[in-house]
């Protein structure tokens, strides 16, 4: 029997939707003031002969912060929940727009001549950094103490609901507190078992009225259309916000556009293949070249140190070239620091001929978890993925990209099946969806789907997210061998 006393939402939780935006606005204001102060101090330190910069109290405490808060609000950072990487993207956009607005205000007020351009540039950098850090820390603290988390009811308890709960629980940007589930079937073991089942689909109206929940997610894409429509019509008048996960799991949705056909009562989804557009490919190529050139100069001492270590550790060349398949099916030599003995090919053939278990493992993923061919230095380089650093020269040569599908050998092409055209459309990457999603801990079919998803959903921002996630993966060495 449903226990309304146990699951009724408290007054504090019901007020979260109103209190949280105010609280975040205060946090953002503090972050902006700190950024202004940092930009002010750094400017005066960097230009000691340029005189001490003076900023009016009105601009410092009111005008500049209001510009930022205005564009943060326009980016819906006070009204909508999003994954934190999307929050960072919106903060970046808001920071750019705010600085442009500030420059316009200074020009109109005819005080541009007395305002340091270096201060404005530093303000852009510090506000983006401080807003991101302050937001993240605030979200983590609130999440830890279960404060100002918006109560949400999830309808469905299958695989899709499990993925939804994982996304909500693992991301600091979401800030939802799951009060329970509605499900007609038995809830399987896993993350969903942590939450109470408050009833079946038919109980949705009673559960919403008794708990007074105002946020509902429908995560039952396998539900019959008639039943799904019935639930939507029951729920919508009772809540403020309702989210629906359609039966499109795995479909590339980056850059999606939604259009309503009112007379026909239909919803049209327009999907774009982002990397099929020449302009996007040019932008990606420019991004790759600039970032790689700067990065190569920065890590050159590390490259030299690793090369000397390999040279002393085992006989043979420092760089290993392996033929991989690139854009449009063109083969290219993929560079890596050598991590195996020089007779690795002969040892592998002998091993595959004599050990059926090893052969089965190799045929499954083209990798061996305990590979006897790997050298002492190679074991460390593979575990940390440092063996792939020379691929930056493939990027500079135009054969690879910083982020993209994992470079494959010719024998793997048939395993891509209908998705091979997505792979061949772009340059393979040093890192990508596969590398930051578990690497060798996920099966080959999922790798293919991740590569395809990336190609169809590409954006510069996704590339930046993948690069930052790669740093975390390398540090924790998850799935590498």
From TrEMBL:
InterPro entries: Bact_transf, EPS_sugar_tfrase, Undecaprenyl-P_galact_Ptfrase
UniProt GO molecular function: phosphotransferase activity, for other substituted phosphate groups
One GO cellular component, as annotated: plasma membrane
UniProtKB keywords: Cell membrane, Membrane, Transferase, Transmembrane, Transmembrane helix
GO biological process: polysaccharide biosynthetic process
Domain of life: Bacteria
Membrane topology term: Multi-pass membrane protein
Location within or outside the cell: Cell membrane; Membrane
Main location: membrane
Transmembrane segments: 51-71, 91-112, 118-138, 285-311
Bacterial sugar transferase domain residues: 284-475
Family: Belongs to the bacterial sugar transferase family.
Protein name according to UniProt: Undecaprenyl-phosphate galactose phosphotransferase WbaP/exopolysaccharide biosynthesis polyprenyl glycosylphosphotransferase
Organism expressing this protein natively: Phascolarctobacterium faecium
């Amino acid at each position: 029997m449903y226990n309304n006393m146990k699951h009724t939402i408290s007054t504090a939780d019901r007020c979260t939707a109103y209190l949280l935006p105010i609280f975040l606005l205060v946090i953002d204001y503090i972050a902006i003031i700190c950024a202004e102060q940092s930009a002010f101090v750094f400017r005066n330190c960097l230009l000691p002969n340029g005189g001490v910069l003076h900023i009016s109290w009105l601009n410092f405490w009111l005008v500049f912060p209001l510009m930022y808060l205005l564009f943060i609000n326009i980016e819906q950072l006070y009204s909508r929940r999003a994954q934190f990487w999307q929050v960072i993207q919106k903060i970046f956009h808001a920071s750019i727009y705010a600085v442009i607005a500030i420059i316009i205000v200074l020009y109109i007020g005819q005080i541009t001549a007395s305002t340091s351009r270096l201060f404005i540039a530093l303000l852009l950098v510090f506000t983006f950094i401080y807003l991101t850090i302050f937001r993240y820390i605030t979200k983590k603290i609130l999440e830890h103490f279960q404060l100002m988390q918006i109560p949400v009811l999830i309808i469905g308890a299958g695989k899709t609901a499990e993925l939804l709960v994982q996304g909500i629980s693992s991301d600091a940007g979401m800030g939802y507190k799951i009060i329970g589930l509605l499900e007609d079937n038995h809830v399987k073991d896993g993350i969903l078992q942590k939450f109470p089942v408050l009833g079946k689909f038919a109980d949705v109206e009673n559960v919403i009225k008794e708990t007074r929940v105002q946020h509902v997610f429908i995560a039952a894409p396998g539900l019959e259309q008639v039943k799904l429509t019935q639930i939507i019509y029951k729920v919508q008048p009772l809540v403020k916000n309702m989210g629906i996960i359609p039966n499109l799991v795995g479909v590339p949705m980056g850059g999606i556009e939604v259009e309503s056909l009112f007379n026909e009562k239909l919803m049209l989804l327009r999907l774009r293949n982002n990397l099929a557009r020449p302009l996007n490919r040019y932008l990606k190529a420019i991004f790759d070249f600039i970032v790689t050139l700067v990065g190569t100069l920065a890590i050159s001492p590390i490259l030299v140190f690793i090369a000397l270590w390999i040279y002393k550790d085992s006989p043979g060349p420092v760089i290993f070239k392996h033929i991989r398949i690139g854009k449009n099916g063109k083969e290219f030599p993929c560079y890596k620091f050598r991590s195996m003995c020089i007779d690795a090919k002969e040892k592998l053939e002998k091993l595959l001929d004599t050990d059926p278990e090893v052969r089965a493992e190799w045929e499954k993923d083209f990798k061996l978890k305990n590979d006897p061919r790997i050298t002492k230095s190679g074991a460390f380089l593979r575990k940390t993925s440092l063996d792939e650093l020379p691929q930056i020269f493939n990027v500079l040569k135009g054969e690879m990209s910083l982020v993209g599908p994992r470079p494959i050998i010719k024998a793997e092409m048939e395993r891509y099946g209908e998705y091979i055209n997505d792979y061949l459309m772009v340059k393979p990457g040093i890192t990508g969806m596969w590398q930051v999603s578990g690497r060798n801990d996920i099966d080959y079919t999922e790798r293919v789907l991740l590569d395809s998803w990336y190609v169809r959903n590409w954006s510069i921002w996704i590339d930046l997210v993948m690069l930052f996630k790669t740093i975390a993966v390398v540090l924790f060495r998850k799935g590498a061998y």
